[in-house]
Amino acid sequence: MFDSVLILIPAHDEAQSVAAVIREIADHTNCRIVVIDDASTDNTAAVARKAGATVLPLSVQLGAWGALQTGMRFALRHGYRFVITMDADGQHEARELGRLFAPVYEGNADVSIGACIRRGSRMRKIAWVFLKWISGLSMEDITSGFRAYNHPAIQLLARKEATLLEYQDIGVLAHLKRNSLTISEIQVDMCPRLAGHSRVFSSWLMVAYYMVQASILGFSKRSNR
Asked: pTM of the prediction?
């Protein structure tokens, strides 16, 4: 089932958690794991290599989406047909990989999202309601980074026009929808972060910045269909 699947993990200063994430994935699949080290200031890259992952080091911090797009281009160059993205903080459970990947593997969707609406804080839920309204998206969990992509989706998102999406949730989902790719959601369980805290939903100021940026992206990519 997991033939030709590459697992991508963007990571910035996640040395405390990334090894546990890699080991858990290896316990459930034999997929190649690629960690895109987003110019970390700690030893994330060394820890990830020691745990068995391939590491793509970035000399300049590109953010989560820039790191993932780097990984998708790597996947295309190396002939992978599918990509699964996971966070480096331990929230996504490797035991859910089969359920997440099934709709894409079976050809029922171009993209599958592991949704967990229970995890939403008050700030996150307020952001979800507003951003779904402005972008025209109907998915329940628009900020989950636990996703599976097929080859057409990877090709679309690896292109130059997808480079400036910045926030992978709204911009990417709206871009996919505008290009008529099908998206499914699978309800999954998620764990608390192993260490650290959300960089986006850590304060009302960060939420405001995120919502302004994501609103512009969501509205600009909104499909009229």
From this structure: 0.84
Q: Give the residue from 105, 103, 89 showing the smallest Cα distance to 191.
A: 89
Report which DSSP code applies to 164: G
> In a structure prediction context, what are the per-residue pLDDT tens digits for the chain, which is 225 residues long?
888 999 999 999 999 999 999 999 999 999 999 999 999 999 999 999 999 999 999 999 998 899 999 999 999 999 999 999 999 999 999 999 999 999 999 999 999 999 987 765 666 666 667 666 666 777 878 888 999 999 999 999 999 988 866 555 678 888 898 899 999 999 998 875 555 555 554 455 555 555 566 555 555 555 544
Q: Rounded distance, CA 168 to CA 165, Å?
A: 7
User: Is 66 within the bounds of a domain?
Assistant: yes
- For the chain, the domain total comes to 1
- Give residue 137's domain range: 5-220
